[in-house]
Amino acid sequence: MSSRAPKEIHEERLKMHNANVANRVQYFDPKTGSFYENLLEERPCPTCKTNHEQFLFFKDGGRYVKCTQCDIVYLNPVFKDENLEKYYRTNHDLQSEIVANDGDFYTNIYSKGLRAIERVAPKGNILDIGCSAGIFLDLAKSAGWKTFGVELNEREASYATAKGHTIYNKFLNEVTFEAPLEAICLWDVFEHLKDGEVYLKDMKALLSEKGVVFLQIPSADSLAAKMLREKCNMYDGIEHVNLYSYKSIEKLALKCGFEIESCETVIGEIGVMNNYLNYDDPYFGNSTNTKTFLGGLDEKWLHDQKMGYKMQLVLRKKG
Ligand SMILES: [Zn+2]
261 or 10: whose pLDDT is higher? Predict the structure, then answer.
């Protein structure tokens, strides 16, 4: 795993962040300093549909709450679908460039996820939703999977197609697959979906009998999220509409006819927490210790507690 100092990683990402901040200005009402009200809609808890919300904090114009019934953290109000779509169309997305700049780090993360899938699913057709330039699919293909991807960004989709993957440049519900899928993967995508229930049910219908859904999502249980709260990059105000804890993703999975086969956490964010503990900016402080924090706790300890920054979950159909 990457042991580069947070400052080094985040300075590279600052360019993209600044472009996104400039893009966001158009959505802010100067009178209130928050988003224009007509862009937003109120909603009940996206998982249990009740209104038992506990206010947490504001972050970059977004209001985050937690459902006291099922534990999910979510944006309320949230951008209406048409505005969210417009936002993504104009957003400067360099995901494939970030992955290319940080190759070893992503290869490790992707390999770990693929191993978790291969422990339960028979090798066959694998679909990556939001596959970007197809870096994960490259890995799956070389491991013997037949690879499919869904990617809305045209440039990214054509990159992935050129590498021999079958890519659909459209929404998932517009695609027809000829054969059932053994695995459907969503890498850092599910937290962007307002209605996870609809997607999980749609995906279930596409799976073979022993097929699985794989999710990598930021974890609301992570120590970094709990310690840094609104200072944590997990909370961005617009894009990350639903942040799941283990309890809340399990509840949603069961509701949609899945059970959790495995859950592991990845990424410690120890350097980020060390900066914060030094009263510095978590992402731009000067700490170079990315190995241990609080006098000796390390990344292994963090993942043993399932308190790493992201969860990798394998969901299988309930028998
Ligand atoms: Zn709820």
Answer: 261
CA–CA separation, 164 vs 150, rounded Å? Answer: 14
Dihedral sign (CA 31, 25, 310, 214): positive
> By the 8 A CB rule, do 211 and 126 touch?
no
pLDDT in tens, 230-286: 999 999 999 999 999 999 999 999 999 999 999 999 999 999 999 999 999 999 999
Distance 246 CA to ligand 1 centre (A): 13
Question: 264 C-alpha vs ligand 1 centroid, how far in Å?
Answer: 23
- 7: which 2 tokens? 């400052």
Distance of CA 202 to the CA centre of its chain: 19
CA distance 272 to 275: 5
Fill in the DSSP letter of residue 110: H
Amino acid letter for position 108: N
Q: 10 Å Cβ neighbour count for 166?
A: 14
From ligand 1's centre to the CA of 304, what distance in Å?
27
Which residues, chain by chain, have CB under 5 Å from ion ligand 1?
45, 47-48, 67, 69-70
Q: How many CA atoms lie within 13 A of 301 on its CB side?
A: 11
Q: Is residue 141 exposed (0-12), middle (13-18) or buried (19+ Cβ within 10 Å)? A: middle
Distance 295 CA to ligand 1 centre (A): 37
CA distance 181 to 203: 9
